[in-house]
Amino acid sequence: MSYPKILTIQDISCVGQCSLTVALPIISACGIETCVLPSAVLSTHTAGFSGYTFRDLTDDMPAICAHWQKENIAFDGIYTGYLGSTKQIDYVMQIIDTVKKSSAPAIVDPAMADNGKLYPGFGMAFVEAMKALCAKADYVVPNITEAALLADVAYQTEYDRVYIDLLIEKLQALGCKNIILTGVSYAKGMTGIVVVEDGEYSYYEHELLPNSCHGTGDIYASAFVGALIRGKSAYDAAVIAANYTMECIKATAEEENHWYGAKFEPVLSKLITAIEE
User: Fold this and answer.
1) Which of 5, 46, 107, 271 could bond 33 through an S-S bridge, CB–CB 3.0 to 4.6 Å?
2) Burial 179-206 (b: 16+ CB within 10 A, else e)
3) Digit-coded pLDDT (tens) for 14-71
4) Alpha helices, DSSP H only, in the chain?
5) What's the pTM value of the predicted model, to 2 decimals?
């Protein structure tokens, strides 16, 4: 596939370095035509800002998809990020069925929770709807909180390989084909990524950086998608995405007041180099 065309579906936070304002430049930098379907438009993201504007685009989604069908537009991959409602999830599943090429992957980041808690506005009905979307996906990219919710397993802050294996087993039983589980830490000061592709388990461990940033989950998932669509294995794509995300966090730490996102742009060249190797 010399010049793939993929679709990413998530919201636009106009300021804040997350969601589509991260996915579009990162995946484009990987040499991929990146098409977008905005699920909502916000003036900023919702973490740390107040009084932000919000425009829900849920009702536009079916008409956009219908127009693509009329124009015979199809995609070499579909990647979903933050979705705001169960109705949006239902529409996304229809979109996957209608405009994704039959051999193309669907990659789902079930962006709904972190640190043991669902994001504001989400309940268990949303989790149930997300289970159905993840079962349809070829790759899912949850953090441990999201994996525990999808697997109906109690969230734990301290765990071992047995607990992670249980999450993987439950996700596979749900129908998840290939699993990229982020934020898996077996040792103090370290974290990593568990990759289960075609039933094979791999683990990539790296340094746990002391500072954290908003939007790094979106950066990671977008870099993973870019590397995967460019032909890397899931493990290699997971490693490239992890290394790139660490470079973004390090770059952000150099600027004291950059609290609202991660400086992914200055280090894009490192991602491009890794993709080309």
Assistant:
1) 5
2) bbbbbbeeeeeebbbbbbbeeeeebbee
3) 999 999 999 999 999 999 999 999 999 999 998 888 999 999 999 999 999 999 999 9
4) 20-29, 61-70, 86-99, 124-136, 144-151, 161-174, 216-229, 234-253, 268-276
5) 0.96
Residue 130 structure tokens: 């997300």
| Phi-psi category of residue 16: left, alpha or beta, with phi > 0 → left and psi -120 to 50 → alpha | left
Query: Which residue type, as a one-letter code, is found at position 59?
Result: D
Quote the longest CA-to-CA distance of the chain: 54
Q: How far is CA 166 from CA 150, 162, 182, 184, 204, in A?
A: 12, 6, 15, 13, 19
Q: Distance (Å, rounded) from C-alpha 146 to C-alpha 43?
A: 26
CA atoms within 13 A on the CB side of 97: 9
Judge contact between 83 and 89, C-beta under 8 A. Answer: yes
Percentage of residues in the chain with pLDDT exceeding 70?
Answer: 100
